[in-house]
C-alpha cells in the first residue's frame, strides 16, 4: 500500500487533494498525511471537508516513520518547492507525480518526479518537464520545450515550440513565451506578458512585449 504525504497544507494543498481524491480511487479510503513547517498556514477545515482520513504530522522526523511513503509538494512558490525538494531528497524520501486524467500528454514528452500536471494541460511532442514542477490547468508546453526543475506554469500560460525556462522560474497566468525563447533560472514572468527575447540573467519580465527589470 502506498502512503501519500502532501507537503504544505495551504490553499494549493486543498486544490491538489481534491484532484487526487476525485481521480485516484486508491486513496479514497486511505490515510493521507499532511505536513507543513508552519501550522498557521494549514487549511485544516477545508482539507478535512474533502476527506476524514487525513493525518496531520507536525514534526518532519515523524514522517520518516511512515513506511512505503511517497511525497508530493503542493505549494506554488518555486523557491519553497526547491528548498523542500532538496531536503526530501537529502533524507531519501521517494517522490510521486500527479497527472490529471484530462491532460494531453504525448508519448514522446517526459515528466520528472514530484510534478503536478493540472486539468487540460498539454505537453506536446518532445517537451520535457523536469523534477518538482507544477504545470497548471490549461497550460501549454509546446513541442521541444523544456521546463527546468521546481518551476511553476500558472493557469493558461504557453511555452511555444522550442522555448526553455531554467530552474525555479515562475510563469504568471496567461503569459506567453514565443518560439525558441530561453529564460534564465529564478526569473519571474508577470501575468499576460509576452516574452519575445531570451533573457540570460535573473529578471522580472513584464508587459507586451515584455521588458526586463531587476529582481
Architecture overview:
By secondary structure, the protein is α/β, with parallel strands linked by helices. The chain folds into 2 domains: 3-96, NAD(P)-binding Rossmann-like Domain (Rossmann fold, 3-Layer(aba) Sandwich), CATH 3.40.50; 99-202, UDP N-Acetylglucosamine Acyltransferase, domain 1 (3 Solenoid). The chain has 4 helices and 24 strands. Strands 6-9-12-15-18-21-23-24 form an 8-stranded mixed β-sheet, with no helix packed on it. Strands 7-10-13-16-19-22 form a 6-stranded parallel β-sheet, with no helix packed on it. The longest helix has 13 residues, at 11-23. It is globular, with a radius of gyration of 17 Å.
Could you write a compact summary of the structure shown?
It is built from four helices and 24 strands.
Instruction: Write down the CATH topology of the largest domain.
Output: UDP N-Acetylglucosamine Acyltransferase, domain 1
Averaged pLDDT, please?
95
Number of domains: 2
In CATH, the homologous superfamily of the largest domain goes by the name Hexapeptide repeat proteins
Strand content: 25-35%
Task: Give the end-to-end Cα distance, rounded to a whole number of Å.
Answer: 45 Å
Notable traits:
24 strands, 4 helices, single chain, 8-stranded mixed β-sheet, 17% helix, UDP N-Acetylglucosamine Acyltransferase, domain 1, 6-stranded parallel β-sheet, 215 residues, Rossmann fold, alpha/beta
Amino acid at each position: 500500500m502506498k502512503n501519500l504525504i502532501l507537503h504544505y497544507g495551504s490553499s494549493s494543498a486543498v486544490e491538489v487533494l481534491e484532484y487526487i481524491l476525485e481521480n485516484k480511487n486508491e486513496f479514497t479510503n486511505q490515510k493521507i498525511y499532511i505536513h507543513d513547517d508552519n501550522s498557521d498556514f494549514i487549511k485544516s477545515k477545508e482539507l478535512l471537508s474533502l476527506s476524514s482520513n487525513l493525518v496531520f504530522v507536525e514534526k518532519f522526523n515523524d514522517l520518516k516513520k511512515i513506511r512505503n511513503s511517497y511525497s508530493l509538494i503542493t505549494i506554488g512558490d518555486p523557491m519553497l518547492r526547491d528548498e523542500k525538494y532538496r531536503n526530501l531528497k537529502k533524507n531519501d524520501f521517494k517522490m510521486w507525480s500527479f497527472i490529471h486524467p484530462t491532460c494531453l500528454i504525448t508519448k514522446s514528452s517526459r515528466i520528472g518526479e514530484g510534478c503536478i500536471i493540472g486539468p487540460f494541460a498539454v505537453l506536446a511532442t518532445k517537451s520535457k518537464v523536469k523534477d518538482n514542477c507544477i504545470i497548471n490547468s490549461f497550460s501549454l508546453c509546446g513541442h521541444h520545450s523544456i521546463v527546468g526543475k521546481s518551476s511553476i506554469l500558472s493557469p493558461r500560460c504557453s511555452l511555444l515550440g522550442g522555448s526553455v525556462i531554467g530552474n525555479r522560474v515562475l510563469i504568471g497566468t496567461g503569459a506567453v513565451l514565443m518560439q525558441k525563447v530561453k529564460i534564465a533560472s529564478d526569473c519571474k514572468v508577470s501575468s499576460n506578458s509576452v516574452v519575445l527575447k531570451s533573457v540570460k540573467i535573473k529578471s522580472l519580465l513584464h508587459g507586451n512585449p515584455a521588458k526586463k527589470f531587476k529582481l
